[in-house]
Amino acid sequence: MTSRAIYAARRAVEHAVTVPGVRPLRLFPVLWPLWQVEISANVYEEQAYEVIDRFLERAVVEGGIDSRDELARFFGLQPALVDRCLAFLGVIGHLTVDGGVVRLTELGLQSLRAGVRLTPKESRQKVLIERFTGRPLPRRYHHGSLHVLPEPRIPDHLLADRSRFLPLFTPTAFEPAIVDALAARPDRTEYNLPSRLRDITTVAAQDAYLPAYLVETERHALLAYTAIGDERDTFLEEICRDVPSVQLKIDAETRLDRRELWTEWLAESRHGPGRLQQLRNGVWRVTLSPAAFSGAPRLSLSSVGSFQLRKYHFLQLWCDDQDLRGRAVAERALGMARLSEVRTQNDLVERIGVLADRLEVKPPSVADLRAYATTNGLHDHLSHLDALA
After folding, report:
1. Which top-rank group of organisms is this from (predicted)?
2. Domain 49-115 has what CATH class?
3. DSSP state for residue 16 in the 8-state scheme
């Protein structure tokens, strides 16, 4: 298991509040139930024919010679040598010898037509299956950096925040026919099952859990987010629409008076006085003084414009000091430069633009970020900036 932290909840909220025409209300961290299925299959390696092997196969197909003795006489070979060749070709699945009659298999015929000796090798592969519907997960979910957990809990050292994840449950039992149906699909390569694999069988199916965030909207729709990208997870959203029990679980969680919830939080927080307000998109915001963002035990500078989570609700943390918000953008932008998915300066500039727009400040240039890192002694960030193409 990788030591990289789970995709943070605030990233999901930060995107959800920007979706046009949507008024997000609550966020639910969930562990989505999957099956991680190990399969065994044959993959055919292309090898050059041994001269005798190829001519023996041609004699059977083109010459109609179908016995060991006739093959030995036709080529003037010792019967023992023909036996060894036939035995080898039988082992790799090119022919059968039944009652002394030699016949080429489909693999043998295919190899002869291709002019290469196709030799089967065992391949082990893993595919992920969504447990509510039995649908295979697209190939993008099989990326090595995506957390898929073997049990319905997240180790503390992998949590980016203090989110408590709710395990979703379905009693559906795994059936090997699910893999058979996947193997028969013409688009199976899109689900991590390469087309070159043959004779696919299920070896084992284990429970697995995908950390995800479901954002409930005012119209009782659910937006889904996972670590496959910064945008919404449309695959899981489709499952949510098709599986009523997911929405029912969300509906069962108590709805709180948000003004009362955040007034109580503010009184307990020791972040000083704050002004609560509900924005036009339905999001609640608290405006705090610059002193509230001065580091532990205060809020971090990078939390300006982001969100506080409490009892499945979220509150935007704000400050009217434009200079402080500009420094917050610089700090977070330097952190973005370290992300594996940010490979070029254009990638970084695009992300900075979105962040600066949300914090209502002018986006800093890469040169500005370099100067900020130098001035504030953030030298380890400079190498990441310089590494961007």
Report:
1. Bacteria
2. mainly alpha
3. H
